[in-house]
Amino acid sequence: MHCEKGREQMTDAGTVKVRTFAPMESFRGIGGDLFTRTGCWLGKKTVIFGRNGTGKTTFAEVLRTIDGTDENSGRSAVLASYAEGNRWRTGPLPESVVRRIHVFNRYFVEEELAFFLDGRAASAGILKLGARNVHAEKALRSVQDSLVRDNRWLETVRATRGTLARDEKAAKEDAKRRVLEVLGTVREQTYNSRVFTVATVKKLLLESQPEVALDEVRYGQHMDLLRRQDAPRRVPAIAAPPLDLLDLGSRVGEAVSRKLSSVVRSALENDRVLSEWIQAGLDLHQAGDLCRFCESGRLSEELRTAYSSHFDTSSAQLRDDLESLARQIGEAQGALQSWWEELPEADDLLPAYQVRWKDVLATLDAVRRSSADHLDTVAAVVSQRAENLYEEVAPRDAAAPDAADLSEAGEVLAANNADVERMSEVRQQAESEILHHLVDSFRKRYLTAVRRQELATRVQSSLERQIRSLRQEERRWQDDQQEVGQMADLINQDLADHLGHVHLTLTVSEDGQGYRVLRGEKLAVNLSEGERSSIALLYFLRSLEADDVTPATDLVVIDDPVTSLDKDGLFAAFSLVTERTKSFAQMIVLTHDFDLFRLLLVNCEKARAASVRAIRSGDTKEKEFPQVQFLETKAHMTASGDREISLHPMSPRLLEHPTEYHYIFHRIAEAVSTQVDADLPLLGNAARRLLEGFVAFKAPSGGDFRSKVERAASMGEVPNELTQRMIRFVHGASHRDEPNPSVTLGSAMVSEELGQVLRFVYSCDHDHFTGMCKAVDVDLKPQVARWKKAAGLQRSKPVPKPPAAQSPNPLPFDQPEN
Asked: Kind of pairing, strands 555-559 and 101-104?
């Protein structure tokens, strides 16, 4: 980063100057008091140092994701103290300032650099640089995935349409075959393959369904009618059954119960032959006539009267009546049977009426049987009285049955005869109903295939339109990707000239839309973090040369540009960043690497000194926006368990002694003297590094870490138990990079153990310890007094050395030496 001695005169009203900023809502541990709580602000050139986990990337991300125009975009909105030109304002950063802020951090790397290693065609191992290209490539691949999916669906739909077309055709052919099988047997001239075509079947299948479906009975009736070869004839109306028996019944009752006036003689009653002979002889002679059968040879008046009484005409009359009734009953029975036999059979009617006629015959048969039973009853009674004229017979129920209802029979015969008169029309109707019945069994199958074909056709058309649209979108995204040829040459030149990655080269991919990264002559598909960051940094710096970037008015923020680089790469990156950003209106660099911090500090030493002098001389403009600012980020856990990030001015004494050893000593001494637990859990690793630096100076040939510590301890009055306790602490608490490590020590205990590390340094070398306190401007006199007092107590009352198998003041992170 290039620092100039004098203040640049800003004449462009669009020049960006940002002193402070704060997210409107807490953003990953950064709140509204980031600057105000510690009274610091940004300058024209600002260097911010902070160890990993202290919020540097978050600091840069707030500025990278600012959106000053759309509150619903999901991007950060910040309140800031800023200026455009020479007028300072406080409020949300406007779009005119936001668009002039350029930020490089690991999120930039993620968005601006991406590999596509899916192995598809020419895209395998393709590197995309630039958010626009990365976004376009991802969108392009999404479109291509959609194309693959839609084309696969299109093939399925086309295959389905083919299957449905075959189903439709089969339904028509099966319907035709069925019709020919049935109606071809009765109407061969009409129902044959030449006349009855598939087109005719299709028309029938598309017609509305018949209102009444044929059942098995009606289907059989129609087929019987169509098979009938003879011409049907009218059936004559039927007469009423001969059932005029009301009078007969009453006459029978009177006859069988009639009383006779004749006197029955027992001799004649018991001798029927004699009775009949005498009855015949009565008319041959009169009383007084000579008769050898009479008494004394002469027919007496008394005897004739007796015989006449026996053969009274009443019995003769009864006999005549009974004979007449028997004859009439026989005639009625014959007439009834003749009437029944003359009724039409069901086969005499058309098939459509045969069932109804059978029902009519069943009704009439019931009437016939009832009448016949009645006649049989009265005939039996008459016969009984005729056998014994002189014995009266009680009359039975002689009431005749009701007359037969012939209305149903008349309706059936009338309808049958009407159809006989219009037989041609009836046959056509039967044929039509049979035809529709046969076709209807295939209609659902046919219409389902037709409807599904229509749906498949619509889906196919929709997919084809969508595919055409996707192909247009594919071409649009392909065209939207920026040309890469020149950028490949520039990045290759920077890789070789500045970062020393001569083994890496970028070549334009075959489609001209991306890069192939080669390591030597082979495709580099597994770039290291340092290689990826280097390429992304080079791209970022080259992107600052774009037409829409105006260095004289813009702000550049670079977070950890030397991640995973070795010492040579670090210096090259420092030189490159300094050179490429020297003309920008405002510059912010954040780093966790103390070597880079020192390089930046040395590079800006003269400008910083000039700024300090100007501020001391009362230059208000320099004070409100210094030429150079050096700040530090810190992080600690709140009571609720959240991370809180704070920004602090870098200690002036540390700036005067820019070594990592000074910085670590300052941080540990500050934590011990102030008891502030901002990031105490992270200082265990710093304590280890502090001791490594100290014992390397005190015991340069002491062997491993433990040996050097013990040798340094032997040079001073350091109790062995302090030495071992301190070694265990730095072994167990080192290498912690997160602000909330999983340790069992609380903040107070960590502070105490850090104090023991400083006590060790003090005990080994009083002068060195005192000089370091002065150099970094910390006061540890109270702690030194306590150490001296503790040492005096130990001398006055020696503490026995514990057995080797035990550890004095054991700590939970006691671990073997690394």
From this structure: parallel
Cβ–Cβ < 8 Å for 64, 108:
yes
Q: Return the pLDDT at 639.
A: 76
Highest mean pLDDT among 146-155, 321-330, 342-351, 668-677: 146-155
Which residues, 6+ apart, have CB-to-CB distance to 363 below 8 Å? Answer: 404, 405, 408
Give 369-400 pLDDT, tens digit per residue.
888 888 888 888 888 888 887 788 877 665 66
Q: Sign of the CA dihedral 610, 614, 615, 621? A: negative
Q: Kindly list the distances between the CA atom of residue 230 and the CA atoms of 226, 227, 356, 736, in Å, as whole numbers in the listed order.
A: 11, 9, 22, 112
Measuring CA to CA, which residue among 323, 340, 333, 343 is closest to residue 374?
333
Distance CA 734, CA 727 (A): 11
The one-character DSSP state at 22 is E
341: DSSP letter: H
Q: What is the pLDDT of residues 9-48, one digit of tens each?
A: 433 456 889 999 988 888 888 888 888 888 899 999 999 9
Q: Which of 247, 463, 459, 241 is nearest to 360 (CA)?
A: 241
CB 68 within 8 A of CB 92: yes
Q: Report d(CA 409, CA 414) in Å as an integer.
A: 8
Of 362, 357, 341, 406, whose CA–CA distance to 221 is shortest? 357
Length of the chain: 818
How is 324-337 classified by DSSP, letter by letter?
HHHHHHHHHHHHHH
Q: Are strands 45-49 and 628-637 parallel, antiparallel or unpaired?
A: parallel
Burial 440-461 (b: 16+ CB within 10 A, else e): bebbebbeebbebbeebeebbe
- Supply angle C-alpha 536, 537, 541, rounded to 5: 120
CA distance 430 to 433: 5
276: Cα within 13 Å, side-chain hemisphere:
2
CA dist 452 and 56 (Å) reads 62
Q: Which amino acid is at 803?
A: P
Residue pair 408/245 in contact by the 8 Å Cβ criterion:
no
* Pairing relationship of beta strands 78-84 and 16-23 according to DSSP bridges: antiparallel
For the CA atoms of 286, 292, 297, 301, the dihedral, rounded to the nearest 10 degrees, stands at -30
Give the pLDDT band (50/70/90) at residue 106: confident
Q: Is 632 helix (H, G, I), strand (E, B) or coil?
A: strand
Residue 290, phi then psi, degrees to nearest 5: -75, 130
CB 588 within 8 A of CB 633: no
Q: d(Cα 779, Cα 61) in Å, to the nearest integer? A: 37
> Model-level pTM greater than 0.90?
no
Secondary structure letter of residue 263 according to DSSP = P
